[in-house]
Amino acid sequence: MAQTTQPVGRRLTQRTLAPWLFLAPGMFMFTVYVLWPIVQSVTLSFYDWNGLYNGQGQFTGTFVGMGNYAELMSDPAFETSLWNNLKWLVLYMLALPIGLFIAIFLNQTVTGIRVYKSLFFFPFVISQVVVGLIFAWFYAPNFGLFYLLTESVFGKGTAILADPDLVTYGIIVAGLWPQIAYVMILYLTGLNNVAPDQIEAARLDGAKGWRMLWYVVLPQLRPATFIAVIVTVIGALRSFDLVSIMTNGGPFGSSRVLSYYMFEMALGEYGFRMGYGAAIAVVLFAIMMIFISGFIWKMWRDEKER
Amino acid sequence: MVHTLKGALALGTALLLATSAMAQDKRVVTWNADYDPIPLAAAEALIADFEAANPEIDIVLTNFDHEAYKNAIRNFLTADAPDLANWYAANRMRPFVEAGLFADISDVWANNGLTESLASSVLSSTIDGKQYAIPYTYYQWGIYYNRDAYKAAGVDVPGPEGVSWDQFLANCEKFKAAGIDCVTTGSSALWPVAGIFDYISMRTNGYQFHSDLAAGKISWTSPEVAAVFDNFGKLQPFVTENHAAIDWQDAAALLVQGKAANYVMGNFAVGVFKEGGMTNDNLGFMVFPEITPGIARAEEAPTDTIHLTSGAKNPEDAKTFLAYMASAEAQTKWNGAVGQLPTNKNASVDANDPFLTAGFNALSTATGGIAQFWDRDADAEYAKAGMEGFQQFLVQPDQRQAILDRLEQTRLRIYPQ
Asked: From the CA of A130, how many Å to the nearest CA of chain B?
């Protein structure tokens, strides 16, 4: 039966070469669109460059070594951005408990529940730009709903976006609105998969309320929680659109975050310091890397346990 | 020939049109611009006139969206340079000049006697003794005020010559008592506060001081700067409270509604005021009050320019067109249509427009000098740091020392002594 047993050489190719062939398109894209830009950004961060090539098409930057990073260390605007990113990171986590609460609240069978679910999900569907505009009007001095509300309660209106101490919190609240909806939908799908027999068994054992939630439901929601944490952390770190739409980083830079500061420095009207912008991007990347490696490590561990 | 397109499409079509034009044996000059509809129509009219006088030349204008242009110019100057490109005078053109992307057009200036006819713009068009720009329009800044608000607060309406600084501040007290913002601004985009600062700085210490300050030659901890901030501080309590959260157009609405009395702005705002319902009867213009007596009055008038690129394929005909754009005839026509001021002193302005006439008079009698505006006189990074400082001072005047210290640090970093 010589036909049925394949030659050793061919089997080897199938085992060793085929996986690489299948991986090749993905790896090619990943290298060209992810790895290569990372290398370029890091390289650029060692240069002082205004983004222009001269008439002959030559690069006009000068090598400054760690100069951009040294400048970052003493840059008050960078410090503000870093602190604001931290505020975003911490406060954005509120999306998890609130999203979970709404998901549990909506996880029932009442007439028209689908309508309510879609209404709660709505803010995630609309663009971040629209969310930013809605909240900017909500906070607007003189005619914004929030301003008029505080005016009628305290006698003096608070213009959140003009107040350097409050502005970041104002933007985070705007960001939480769609983020809560996102987390809610993740938990709603998770709740569909909660085993009814376990709930039943727990109920027989007398568990209810908080204990039921904490010991029976939440452990089963772990995959959903994991994804929710990832999207929330990344959402908080790359917060850019809302800052850009609502305040442009102002007043006087008090609501800047790293991603916006990078944009301002590299591509903003008064920026075009490509090297400095790249250095900020590298720092942001390093911060993200901490979380991303954590997630990858956890996923790797879970895969191996299976 | 004119066509309005955006981005990549524009390039392709420009090439297509260029080829078809060449088939007619015309010498093509390409021109990239960033005009809004009214200036674009005015430019089309100029091109038609020019082509009628020079039938062998074909001007192909590619119009970009105004905001997109700021990024696009950085690409097209190196990748696929047109013959002519719109930009701004003074420090805003410096990066392109230093990278060798804008060409030296001193010969156009010399051959057409432009140092004479464009006298007020020689400085802002010159870098290292050579001219790199043809200034064809500018507009005055000053105080626009609502006469109805003055009447409502029982304050004497100022004449075109303006009021004294003390009188202005005294008026502000009355406006405050009447619940009207004496001075309004909307600084969410930062630059409007620079207008107020520029004027206080120029009125306190004069043009040369202000110019040196923008160039990083003067310490923010010097007594002269302290005097500027003393005066800035006198005005601070009378400025619209939440200006940091609103756009300049929102502040214009406050002036139109009579909730604010004065607005330190550029002449382009007149269109917005009039759209809001104001007329020549209740909208007034005056120059910014004199602060230190005896200082030659300087004014703010940002200039728009056209440049010859180094990659130009047809520089000779492009220079012919530049000379035409510098002429009194072309500038009278373009600025008349757009409602701005010609830089050519032999050009004329529409006598029926009180704001243009007032601006023309204010600028032609400004013996102190013409400033370009903070963000064009100062280096981009320095300008931004400054404007953030001015905005912060107007919001938190108690932070004055911290702001000045930070600005001084920035100055020492950007301009090492």
From this structure: 18
Rg (CA), chain A: 25
Continuous H helices in A193-221: 196-204, 209-211, 218-220
Give the ipTM.
0.82
Which structure tokens are listed for A302? Answer: 């879970």
- Range A227-239 average pLDDT: 90
A positions 242-261 inside 8 Å of B (CB): 247-248, 250-253
- Say yes or no to pLDDT of A193 above 60: yes
For the domain made up of B2-137+304-347, the CATH class stated in words is alpha beta
**Selection from B73, B63, B135, B60 nearest residue B105 by Cα:** B135
Question: Considering CB atoms only, which of B242, B384, B406 is closest to A159?
Answer: B242
- pLDDT band with cut points at 50, 70 and 90 for residue B345: confident
Q: Which amino acid is at B323?
A: A
Burial of B386 (C-beta count, 10 Å sphere; 0-12/13-18/19+): buried
Please, what is the average pLDDT of chain B?
90
pLDDT for position A6? 59
Q: Which amino acid is at A207?
A: A
Query: Residue by residue, what is the 3-state secondary structure of A42-91?
Result: HHHCCEECCCCECCCCCECCEECCCHHHHHHHCCHHHHHHHHHHHHHHHH
Q: Rounded distance, CA B43 to CA B338, Å?
A: 10
Most confident region among B2-11, B339-348, B394-403 by mean pLDDT = B394-403
The domain ranges of chain B are 2-137+304-347, 141-300+372-414
- SS in 3 state form for A7-28? CHHHHHHHHHHHHHHHHHHHHH
Is the domain defined by B141-300+372-414 classed in CATH 3.40.190.10?
A: yes
